[in-house]
Design goal:
Strand order of the largest sheet: 3-2-1-4-5-10-6
Bound molecules: S-adenosylmethionine
Distance between the termini: 34 Å
Length: 274
């Protein structure tokens, strides 16, 4: 399944899980918006915008004199982003379907850019970064949020490893392009930003644990919206899928505590100046 089909299929589920995602990424999203230098009146490009949860926060920050263009490769997920913006009363949000490696936007058109949990899916992240830098005004900033490496992200290790095993596929190099934790290798994202021409590049690590009632709540989120995991299991029979989910659940139960289910998650936020 190609990446566009994967996220077209997961679009409704990712949108349904907006409340979980919003709680999970609250602090890191605020940090991303701050690091990108977004202020009242800014014209912002939000790439791999998905159902637009962070787009709404950016729209609030830029206010009526600013604007946000939410761009994504999946037309299906952008219909949710636009509907969410309209329902929240933001007239300053528009959408644009494009592959982030080929944005089809004018040079130097934006005051800032953001990408929340999208850059790691690119087959060629350097090409994507060059494209983002091209559409930014010189001196403006781009901030990307990606997953940290596999050692810092046991949930992703469990989900990917178990899905691959049940799909009958061999383990994958976690740092191969396109993988969930592929940009989590220390220093890699900084090097890519610098090679794409960004200046003043810096990375901040942030913990963003899931705080839910139970393993089932986390699995409900994954089963609804986690495009890459769903794509791996898509070809299995109902019984095979049930076995895969049960295997994941047994491993994820290790994170149940007396205070609920607390799943560790580590993020990297990298900023650079165009
Ligand atoms: C994990 S979702 C994140 C969505 C949103 N930024 C959020 O944090 O809620 C990843 C998004 O990246 C998009 N995506 C993946 N590859 C892309 C590409 N090459 N160009 C543009 N968008 C892409 C997917 O369609 C999906 O909407």
């Amino acid at each position: 399944m190609d990446i566009q089909a994967q996220w077209d299929a997961a679009a409704a589920g990712w949108n349904r899980q907006s409340a979980v995602i919003r709680d999970w990424l609250r602090a890191s999203t605020d940090a991303m918006i701050g690091m990108a230098g977004i202020r009242a009146g800014s014209v912002v490009l939000d790439v791999a915008a998905g159902a637009g949860d962070q787009t709404l926060d950016i729209a609030a920050r830029v206010g009526p004199n600013g604007a946000v263009l939410a761009s994504d490769i999946s037309a299906a997920i952008l219909t949710h982003a636009l509907a969410n913006a309209q329902a929240a009363g933001f007239a300053n949000v528009a959408t644009h379907q494009a592959d982030l490696e080929d944005l089809a936007l004018d040079d130097a058109a934006f005051d800032a850019a953001t990408c929340r949990l999208g850059l790691m899916f690119l087959p060629d992240p350097l090409a994507g970064l060059r494209e983002i830098r091209r559409v930014l005004k010189p001196g403006s900033r781009f901030c990307a949020m990606v997953f940290d490496g596999p050692q810092a992200n046991p949930l992703l290790r469990i989900l990917m490893g178990t899905a691959l095993k049940h799909a009958g596929l061999p383990p994958r190099d976690p740092f191969a392009p396109g993988g969930l934790v592929s940009l989590g290798k220390p220093g890699l994202l900084d090097d890519l930003f610098t090679n794409a021409g960004f200046h003043a590049v810096a990375t901040t690590q942030m913990d963003a644990p899931f705080r839910l009632r139970s393993t089932q709540d986390y699995l409900a989120f994954v089963r609804d919206g986690a495009g890459p995991i769903l794509a791996l299991l898509a070809g299995l029979s109902a019984d095979q899928k049930a076995a895969a989910w049960a295997d994941m659940e047994a491993q994820l139960d290790a994170f149940q505590t007396d205070d609920g289910w607390i799943g560790p998650n580590s993020l990297l936020l990298t900023v650079g100046q165009a």
